[in-house]
Amino acid sequence: MKAAAGKVAQLLVVMFLVSLGTFSLTSLMPGDPAVAILGDNQSPEAYAELRDKLGLNEPLVERYFTWLGHVFQGDLGTSMVPPNEDVTSLIGSAFAVSIELAVLALVVALVVSIPLAMISARRPDGLLDRAASATTFGIMSVPSFVSGLVLIALLVNQLHLFPRVGWVGVTDGLGQNLYHAALPVITIALLEIPTFTRVLRGDLVRTLQEDFVLSARAKGMPAWRIMIFDAFRPSSYSLITVLGLSLAQLIGSTVIVETLFSLPGMGRLVVSSASQGNITVIQGAVLVIAACYVLINAGVDLMYSVIDPRIRRVGA
Amino acid sequence: MRKIRLLPVGVAATVAALVMMGCSNTTAPASVKADPLKVENGPFGMTAASGDPVSGGSLTFGYGGGIASFDPASQQYSGTSGGDEARAVYGTLTEYDTKAGKYVPSMADSISANDDFTEWTVVLRDGVEFTDGTPYDADAVLFNFDRMAKSGAGFSGLWASVVKKAVAKDAKTVVITLKQKWADFPYLLSQAPGMIASPKAVKDEGESYQREPVGAGPFMLDKWTPGQNLVLKANPDYWDGKPYLDSLTFQTITTGDQALKDAFQAGGIQGSLIGTPAIVKDYIQPSSGYSGYVRMTNTGSMLLINNGTPSRPDTPGKDINVREAIASAINTDVINQRAFDGNAFPGTGIFSAESQWANDKPTFTYDAEAAKKHLADAKGFDGKIELLYPSAQAEAALTIEAQLEAVGFKVDAKPVQSITDLINAVLIKRDYDLAMYGWPVPDEPGELYTSYLERFGRKDNQLGYYNETIAKALSDFAAADDTAEKAAQMATIQAEWAETVPAVPYNTTAQMVVWNKNVHDIEVSSRLTLDFSKAWISK
């Protein structure tokens, strides 16, 4: 209980520092909400007046604490740029897209990489291991904007299998939602598959050399059964760590894929807000992303103790 | 072992490159000189539809931007920034008939002027209502004019400088008195000031009105997810009959013109707005199988020269010799080849070759020796000059930098991160020496006049340049109703421009709206905005 309270306090401190840092950095950002709102055909006086109206001439510290006060009341404010939507609702919509993409991509990556890692680990340096290694290194060397463009060229422009752009929410139909999500999900999954495969394969190879595995083999248990029921669980710590980090990272950093497919996720929200100097949206979005990081990592810590009872005992 | 690990990297990269090369539509590399692109203003690929218009169906247009706010009081819409969406919801009191080359009534029943174009009478149609059932009358029009004038945004500045007063003569007649003679005043009513919102909805909804508009145009808001898409549905009570289309969707695609083209070809959208020269070139070919409209703009890309603003009173460009040296150093053909693969539309006149205002007055010509001489004549100038450019146009900036340095300038080229930063430096702070800036201005007389008036026709502009002859020519252009007289005024401006070198144009830009062949009767008007009220899709 004490440890949990400490963890929560730690998380709050991290989020406070992140929000403070972000707010300070906004003064260095490109973009000007007054220009974004008024366009390029107004007098300098009109821009100055609007900046004043938006409170942009107030001292940074004063603006920060005003904003923080509202956050504690559950109010992330209103977007500075028309159509002046509620920031919480903007982030809610973008977050739903990003979390769906991230989770689906990780599921796809796990579905591919776990069997691949098991096949590779079964005979290290065997033909299949080498082939898998070569393939994953090959995929790893291709950045997402390249793989995305290749997929677009093949699956959209040539075969017309998927839509080029756009997003349909789950509430508008699961089938259409998955149809629009498929290509971005594959593009993101391609980034994760090599890492997951390499990490799990390495841990499996080490685990398969443990005494309890040798003992199981000596008892005549089938190799597939040993792999799945005995070796996989103790080999999955690193994979879980990487999975957690990837999930947190993907929520805010799939901007290239979101841009490529014109998806309204968190990455694109932050980038477009930054180019407009839309400070309230950036602040809210960064806060949510930071919260995701710390919560997911706390969740990963918790998972360790679920997987390995020894950690639970040490914690107690 | 190493061989096996290194090999796939190369193989993957090679395969990816080959697949990309095989699947994508390639454009000529920079070193290959492309054929000059011949583009003319106006429609292309239009074919007469067989049979009568049919009702039904949904049309999806893909745009790089999209509407930011539906409140016309604070907006300056154009085809590239919300003009089509707003026009579909509100209509406009007048519109520009591109075929006839004149402004005609649209939501208004008639518009007429007194003899010297200082008083305009707008008569509204009988029985028109907003979609909330309230009357589209003179009071509603005046309510909107008043809101717009007080907004401090959109067209309020121009309105205040041109309009003396607007009053209701009766329930369906509004009389507008101007501060000056302006034969093209209906232009203003073909823009956001002519988009009339329901006063009741504006008052009831307050701040959220910009997201929940109520107009009397051919379409009504169905669903809007800003940044994603906007769905409009047909207004069954539209004064000119219910639109043939059941719905109209505007899909936001922010990845650029290539993504728009991909989406177009994959069938995700049926129409789009394109500005990239190479893609314009692809679509305009008769064999492309598409229809649409091309608008060549004047002064599309400019090398702005600070002539002496309060922020930089001693800028190098204050000296006419420096400005002449810059104008003589720029070779637009080289910029076109190096930065645009030969697909741009080079030119140093303030009117494009296709413009109705093009004339035989001199423009700038490349002459390195003359540039060096002008530079030598600039007494006390050490050659140092700063060039601001959008980071996305690095190749063009590098070419311009090289051309200036070749004649003796020492250029400090500085990229700016975003267009808003460039606007900040040039338009607001006016703190620059040279800047690469987009200044596209179409031929349409109302827009041409207002654009040039803001940019160099008034004192205290972003160039720090003022010329009595140009100001008078612009004023006379506005007052003239005769095209020949207007053309004469533009020739005067061109001649004075070449003489005094306020800035150096280096490219004309093309803007294109393109749609599938089975889409018919989309009308194009001011600022490349589209009217979908009679659009239909053949089977």
From TrEMBL, chain A:
Keywords assigned by UniProt, alphabetized: Cell membrane, Membrane, Transmembrane, Transmembrane helix, Transport
InterPro entries linked to this entry: BPD_transp_1_N (IPR045621), MetI-like (IPR000515), MetI-like_sf (IPR035906)
- Biological process (GO) annotations? transmembrane transport
- Which Pfam families does the entry link to? BPD_transp_1, BPD_transp_1_N
Source species, domain of life:
Bacteria
Q: Which residues cross the membrane?
A: 90-119, 131-157, 177-196, 237-261, 281-304
Q: Where in the cell is it found?
A: Cell membrane
User: What does the entry list under GO cellular component?
Assistant: plasma membrane
Tell me which residues make up the ABC transmembrane type-1 domain: 95-304
Q: How does it sit in the membrane?
A: Multi-pass membrane protein
The record ties this protein, via PANTHER family, to: DIPEPTIDE TRANSPORT SYSTEM PERMEASE PROTEIN DPPB-RELATED, PEPTIDE ABC TRANSPORTER PERMEASE PROTEIN
- Stated family: Belongs to the binding-protein-dependent transport system permease family.
Protein name (record): Peptide ABC transporter
TrEMBL record, chain B:
Q: Which SUPFAM superfamilies match?
A: Periplasmic binding protein-like II
Q: Which CDD domains match?
A: PBP2_NikA_DppA_OppA_like
* Record GO terms (molecular function): peptide transmembrane transporter activity
What keywords are annotated for this sequence in UniProt?
Answer: Signal, Transport
Protein name according to UniProt: ABC transporter substrate-binding protein
An annotated GO cellular component of this protein is: periplasmic space
Its domain of life reads: Bacteria
